[in-house]
Amino acid sequence: MARKYFIETYGCQMNVHDSERMAGLLDQAGYEATADDLDADVVLINTCSVREKAEEKLFTRLGEFHQRELETGERPIVAVAGCVAQQEGSQILKRSRAVDVIIGTQNLKRLPMLVDSAVQAPRRHAPLVDLDPLGDVSFPLGIARRGDPVKAYVTIIEGCNEFCAFCVVPYTRGHERMRPVADILADARNAVDTGAREVQLLGQIVNHYEAPDTSCDFAGLLERLSEIEGLERIRFASPHPRHVTSRMIDAMRRLPKVCRHLHLPVQSGSSRILGAMRRRHTREDYLALVARVREAIPDIALSTDMIVGFPGETAEDFEATLSLTEQVRYHSMFSFKYSPRPNTLALKRLNDDVAEEEKTRRIVALQGLQKDIQGALHRQALGSVQDVLVDSRSRRRDWELSGRTSGNTVVNFAGRADWIGTLVPVRITAANPNSLKGEAVGLLDTVGSRA
């Protein structure tokens, strides 16, 4: 009987895709997936260290496995992967005795070998720690065990060279490494051949892509991907404002398969704080870029990342963040309270001098403003007809389907299960804070066709 594995994932889309890859490797090695960690022989925890709370989730889970062993005398083989694994390494063992394998972010292809060694070792074996980078961004074609039948993640860049003052990613993911165009296109074609209709390109700074195997920048990659038959939509995350080129904007404007959504992380509305963050753009640079994008693509939906309470942020700096948010009017926003991260320049050089209570006040104010803006933008969509790529049933109602517009807004509407994976025209009838409701329009008996 095959040994069973369970994977628990924290963090970003790249972590989700890494888990898909590791699941595929374990499948190939003869393991079998289970949806219940109590039924698993091997538990893999794929970690995130962008926020302190994500780290603490890991040690809470490890404590649960240790307690299970104390109570029953048994626990599964536990492997820790991802950014906390790379960041902390063997230091994890000082906080938990419930770990058998620690594997770094650049070593995923070694996972089956390490797990096999842990499974076959005596119960009290020394934990296996593998953090040495392989220096290789290739991955076996088709190995990923994709968790979504409609949308597929495709990594185009590993690592980051930006070294923003607050960000731990360069220290956990390593320096920037580009995948060859040929590998990316093969990955995307394989996803489409196995049912995907949307591809989301992943990279820490996705629009910094420069092919190592041919002359091709990010705009050129979008063009090449648009030629794939059967691919309906192309998304990407996350770009950096200073790498948004005229060629990229023009490609987004010209190519109908590229979604009318641009995630454009700003982090702060204050030029002074942006300088302290080492973002290498000012408030004025950012607003000028937003104007250029909207002039070229009037229907673009913008989203962003924002940090409040960065070291040295004054009330005036925060007001600049609020005023920028009001001016840009984002369709969505990921906002966070600053927390010092290991190895970062902010931790080494800056004093975390904004009180926690003030950080909380600021995040509440920012999120309240964004909620109002988002609600107003959703109401503007009432009565319009949007093409929705259906990706699942609604979470709340079995008879409802759920999908996203080109602008990345969730829409729920009544429909048939065989519409999943198709583009359906939907008239918007109601606006909720985080999603829209609608009704399918047109020739409903032909909507379900995948032609």
Strand and helix map with partners:
Blueprint: E1 4-9, H1 13-28, E2 32-33, E3 42-47, H2 52-72, E4 77-82, H3 83-88, H4 92-95, E5 101-103, H5 111-120, E6 128-130, E7 151-155, E8 157-158, H6 169-173, E9 177-178, H7 181-193, E10 198-202, H8 218-226, E11 233-237, H9 246-254, E12 261-263, H10 271-277, H11 283-296, E13 301-308, H12 315-328, E14 332-337, H13 345-349, H14 356-380, E15 385-393, E16 400-404, E17 410-414, E18 423-431, E19 436-440, H15 444-447
Parallel strand pairs: 1-2, 1-3, 3-4, 4-5, 5-6, 7-10, 10-11, 12-13, 13-14, 17-19
Antiparallel strand pairs: 8-9, 15-16, 15-18, 16-17, 18-19
Helix pairs in contact: 8-9, 12-14
What would the keywords be for this entry?
single chain; 451 residues; alpha/beta; Rossmann fold; OB fold (Dihydrolipoamide Acetyltransferase, E2P); 3 domains; six-stranded parallel beta sheet; five-stranded mixed β-barrel
